Amino acid sequence: MSTAVPPGGQRTLQKRRQAKSNKDKQLNQTPTSARQAGAGGSSNSILKIYTDEANGLRVDPLVVLFLAVGFIFSVVALHVLTKVTGKIF
Fold it and tell me: Which residues does UniProt call coiled coil (predicted)?
């Protein structure tokens, strides 16, 4: 009769060490693209828009908000104006 191998022992310790080293490798692996990096993983991310390094026109967000609301109001006003003048003429 063959003797049964008790649970635990060297094989179990070796498997645990190998699993831990594989997990550590995955955690320490640096992403290769900005999409894999996530929101803060790349220096060339969307946050560059809000820094002084960004090129182009700098417009305050409040100005953009007022321009957008003004545009929407003008479209609604023109629709109302065409409905009113269409009934008169």
Answer: none
Q: How far is CA 64 from CA 42, 52, 57, 59, in A?
A: 28, 19, 12, 7
User: Is the distance from CB of 34 to CB of 42 less than 8 angstroms?
Assistant: yes
Answer whether residue 31 is part of any domain. no
Q: For residues 5, 6, 12 and 14, what is the CA-based torsion angle, rounded to 10 degrees?
A: -60
- What is the tens place of the pLDDT at every residue in 20-58? 888 787 777 766 555 555 555 555 656 555 566 667 777
Residues 31 and 37: beta-carbon distance below 8 Å: yes
Is 74 a member of any domain? yes
**What is the pTM for the complete model shown?**
0.39
Residue with tokens 């993983």: 41
Could you tell me the residue range of the domain that residue 69 belongs to?
59-89
Please give the helix or strand (H or E) that residue 17 lies within, else none.
helix 10-28
